[in-house]
Design goal:
It is a single chain. By secondary structure, this protein is an alpha+beta fold. The longest helix has 16 residues, at 54-69. The strands form 2 sheets. Strands 7, 8, 9, 10, 11, 12, 13, 14 and 15 form a 9-stranded mixed sheet that branches. Strands 1, 2, 3, 4, 5 and 6 form a 6-stranded mixed sheet that branches. It contains 9 helices and 15 strands. It is 30% helix and 32% strand. Residues 1-10 have low confidence and may be disordered.
Length: 280
């Protein structure tokens, strides 16, 4: 039994609030391969929102499948929600939690701290013009975690939970570049490479569930129209986006940006180039 001690000067309201927070988290559990796992860390109403968060639902489903496929190799003792970040729309944006997981055979712990943000899409737009080198569009925008105030990367955006990867990609292209591209103009390189084996490219599997569907599009434009994109200001200002477009030669792109989305897309593009040439 865990006892909760408070200094005498703390009022009853704080005691009641703390006790409620502790007791209310005890009632919530999730099922992973027939094992009932306590979900703790927040009051029940917050935990219910986490349970409705699509990335968390997908994570539970995937963990359940893995446990069943590997004959319950792990013992999942508890899942502690440590932080919940909400968007302005009051929808959950990110969840940080710790899954207390051990190997049944040895009792040793497996790393279980997770920063959950779900899936995203990225778009490598290759611009072709007669007698000119192929170009690729990069966006420059502040990336505080790095930190860099004009980080060069491929256009990208978070998935909306609809499962329409191409539709989300087309929408993000228009928002971040101003170009209108139809869904059937986009090639999902991750699907071509892996089929349904993997959801996408995983950016940091040791600490995050994030996966990215890598799309590419080859677009033919006249030179003047391509040049007009250089330095264009885009992005949804109402969402806090401040984006500047930058055009670089496709052959030099790998030397100009450390963006994992770009480097992975370039690798897949080269491996799948015959499919692009046949379609374009």
């Amino acid at each position: 039994m865990r006892f909760l001690f408070l200094p005498k000067q703390q009022n009853n309201k704080l005691f009641i609030t703390s006790a409620y927070r502790f007791l209310s988290t005890m009632a919530t559990t999730v099922t992973i391969a027939k094992q009932q796992v306590p979900l703790t860390g927040y009051p029940k109403e917050d935990l219910d929102q986490v349970l409705a968060f699509q990335p968390f639902k997908d994570w539970l489903h995937g963990f359940d499948e893995q446990q069943q496929a590997r004959q319950g190799e792990m013992n999942v003792e508890s899942i502690e929600i440590q932080n919940i970040d909400y968007f302005k729309s009051d929808k959950i944006g990110f969840v940080k939690f710790k899954a207390n997981v051990t190997f049944k055979e040895t009792g040793k712990s497996a790393p279980g701290i997770v920063f959950m943000r779900g899936g995203a899409v990225s778009m490598m737009i290759i611009l072709k013009s007669e007698n000119e080198k192929d170009k690729v569009i990069l966006t420059l925008q502040p990336r505080i975690p790095v930190p860099h105030l004009a980080f060069p990367e491929l256009p990208a955006g978070m998935l909306d939970g609809s499962g329409n990867f191409a539709g989300t990609a087309a929408k993000e292209i228009e928002e971040e570049t101003g170009l209108t591209i139809k869904e059937d103009e986009l090639i999902d390189m991750t699907e071509l490479a892996y089929g349904d084996q993997w959801k996408g490219m995983y950016t940091s599997a040791g600490g995050s569930d994030e996966f990215i569907r890598l799309f590419a599009c080859v677009k033919h434009m006249d030179t003047d129209s391509i040049n007009q994109l250089e330095g264009k200001l885009t992005g949804l200002r109402s969402h806090g986006e401040s984006i500047t477009l930058k055009l670089v030669n496709l052959e030099d792109a790998w030397t100009l940006s450390p963006d994992a989305k770009l480097l992975s897309s370039l690798a897949l593009y080269q491996a799948l180039k015959s499919k692009f040439e046949n379609g374009n």
